[in-house]
Amino acid sequence: MEKVVLWGEEIEKEFAGASENQLDDFLELIRFIQKNSIRNEICESTLDKAELWEWLGSKDQIELNDIKRELSRYLEKARCSEKEVFDKFANNIGKLITPKLLLLSFKKESIYYISTILEYYTGIRSYLAAEKKDEFCGDLQECFPHIFFVEGIGTTINTLNRKFEDIREEIVEHLVCINNYQKRFHEMLEEHRSYQEISRQFTMDTGIDCSPQAGRGKVQALKEIRLNEMTGQEETVVCELHTKFSTFNIDRERQDRIYFFPGKQGILGGRIIVKHIGNHL
How far apart are CA 112 and CA 101, in angstroms? Predict the structure, then answer.
């Protein structure tokens, strides 16, 4: 997903009104943007504001000195845009065009206004949920950091019983819950909980129907061979846990699903493995 992150035009006022925790979260987001080489732009008129540099240079809050120093460095690395160019970008925030646009801001006026890494992911997932199928499949991986999508996941999406456009928002909803449940999955696996128990707990916590594969004869198609980097040995994992989408009058056997393995330390960094998004296997 091609993205541009814009610095808010009144960011100096927002900095001045933010708490230390908010500024810490914001700085973590900026580090994330830089680490991932995400293009970020600031309007030249904002960068020229005396108020911005006065706040960054002030020493009246000793606990903020390090934060201000680091923010100054990142501001200097941002691409500076003429106001006409910047305004054109800003006017397209939320529109399904390329590049996708987000705004660095503490205001909560839009889902595309972000000041934390969580808000960043919420913003790009909102764009994802409106994309066409080919673009959607290509952008899945970067939207869910705790999930690994197997090669060819787009082919499995072609097996959906419902129209992709009718179900893509629900796909994103399920993937968000699966992604966010990674830590809990690991905890339950370390407690030697069965897949039946794990799926039951997931359903209780998320409200999304989940279960292991019932027919053991079909498990073979759900296997993946992956290297365990901790042992140096290849292991077979089974992506048999699956969430079920709301039926909308589709009978149970035709109910579309997401099949996944809940993750294991040493295999793909402990990420959840999603093998199939589509029809009932």
Answer: 7
